[in-house]
Request: fold
Amino acid sequence: MCNCLTMRRDLRETMGGKYPHSTHSPACEDYVTEEFARIEYGDVACVMEKREAEAFVNDSNIEYVVTTVHLTRDQFERMGEFAGF
Ligand SMILES: [Zn+2]
Reply:
């Protein structure tokens, strides 16, 4: 059950403003993260579904830096559409 209202939000899930805030606080029972892929090239980065990232990297000749990030589904949905490298 959600107990966000009983705690102070510190927005630590944004990792210093790197990602959008989540609906639930990381200390809430309803806070559930999933694995997403963060793809970086130079100073440009985007976050994708893991399977989409795999296809994207395989289709490309560029060596991207791919790391796994744990975000909630709502954080991911709050991120702007990726416009391409
Ligand atoms: Zn909550």
Notes: Residues 36 and 66 are 10 Å apart (CA to CA). The two ends are 40 Å apart (CA to CA). Helices lie at 50-58, 73-78.
